[in-house]
Amino acid sequence: MEAVIFDLDGVLIDSEQVWDEVRQDFAARHGGVWTPTATRDMQGMSTPEWGAYLVSAVGVALTPEEASAGVIAEMEKAYAAHLPVIPGAVEAVREVASRFPVAIASSAPAVLIKVFLDVTGLPVPVAVSSEECAAGKPAPDVYLLAASRLGFAATSCYAVEDSTNGLKAALAAGMTVLAVPNPHFPPAADVLAQVRVLSSITDLPGALT
After folding, report:
1. According to the model, what pLDDT value does residue 183 have?
2. Which of 40, 134, 166, 183 lies at 20 to 30 Å from 190 by C-alpha?
3. DSSP secondary structure of 24-86
4. Which stretches of the chain drop beneath a pLDDT of 70?
């Protein structure tokens, strides 16, 4: 194995609930009605995909572009007030980066990935948003692009994920997948059965061979 590619939301920052709260509040203010499946449906979607979902499935009375821009602006405000970095995540990435080339492959928009990297100062030379890809997770596109930019075959990379759609994306890319399950939105058991499960991000450095 030659490189390690990290998801961001739910793996390095405890942000899935923040996204959920911001989207629900935004939807309620713009005529939408939250559905029981909306939260999980949007996990892993690219920005254009979840913007369109808010309009078509939730009923937000805006264009998809207006919906996504509004939510991202609210997320920037939330991160400016408090960036919810998962305890031990920064140290884990630094240790892994001392041994392997590393990258981020995230469904988060590029502006929010940059906020995370600016605040933490982590040595991550490649950071890819699914905004750059034809499809978000569970499609493998963002992982394949990250591996390509690192200069490695996807099959020689580890992927670190937390959600059902993220795990499916990394598996579809042919990577060796390690899961740090999100306690707020646990991944599907049948998908977890296909990967190695860690109890915490702090276990990652020791799990890499």
Report:
1. 87
2. 134
3. HHHHHHTT----TTHHHHHTT--HHHHHHHHHHTS--SS-HHHHHHHHHHHHHHHHHH---BP
4. none
